[in-house]
TrEMBL record:
Taxonomic source organism: Sphaerosporella brunnea
Stretches assigned to the GST C-terminal domain: 112-241
The protein, known as: Glutathione S-transferase C-terminal-like protein
Sequence similarity: Belongs to the GST superfamily.
Signal sequence region: none
GO molecular function, one term: transferase activity
Keyword annotations of the record: Transferase
Coiled-coil annotated spans: none
Listed SUPFAM superfamilies: GST C-terminal domain-like, Thioredoxin-like
Amino acid sequence: MAETTSTVAVASNGYSAQNPQFTLYSHRIGPNGFKVAEVLSELGLHYRTIFLDFGAGENGMKTPAYEAINPNGRIPALIDHSANDLVVWESAAIILYVCKKYDGEFRLWAPTLDEQAQIETWLMYQATGQGPYLGQAFWFMLYHPERLDSATERYVDETKRVLGIVQKQLAREGSNGWLVLGRITAADIAFLHWYLHIARIKIVLKDEFPIVWEWVCRMKERPGVKAGMEGAVFPEGATVLKT
Ligand SMILES: N[C@@H](CCC(=O)N[C@@H](CS)C(=O)NCC(=O)O)C(=O)O
């Protein structure tokens, strides 16, 4: 299995880059693993990443070895070695676990239930209202074996509808350019990584969603986000990082 370790130098709980607290199962292109890596890096937590392949090959996700970790056979999955090798999977569940347990300084999380509810609202919206639509838009435009224009159009249109909602949220009065609480939270990180690939499905953020574009530009320069992206591959057409 291909492997990297996080480069963030902050020591935590006695763990280090050489002796990381977590193992993260990810994929070099798939956005869902990088959301988790970006949260861990932003919080200065130490993890090693194991990059899997799609499919049932030796290093694949659809193997008994990996399905014993994540029965859904997809990435991400996180093992917390400081909690008896507890396994958490589904990116939003992992982000919530990590933030609730390890973000005592509220860098991406918040102290009150009312504030937490706002972060959770957007985390859930990402998981149910953005991720599946973008995933299907990418699938039908780039990977489906036959051309199905109506399906492609449906999912690209839904993706644009969601982007419109995100843009409105970022632009509202008092937002300071963030999704909730007027500052960066785990919700922002959860939405980000898909957008780094979005030019591959012919959406030009800079022109079509300039406020989202400006937020992406700010986010991707954060040291924690950059560290979390280590090992990421952006196929031809994912131009966001270059401009
Ligand atoms: N709802 C899941 C989605 C996980 C997911 O679809 N991951 C993709 C990569 S980003 C995957 O593993 N795909 C492999 C497959 O579909 O077989 C989450 O947020 O964790």
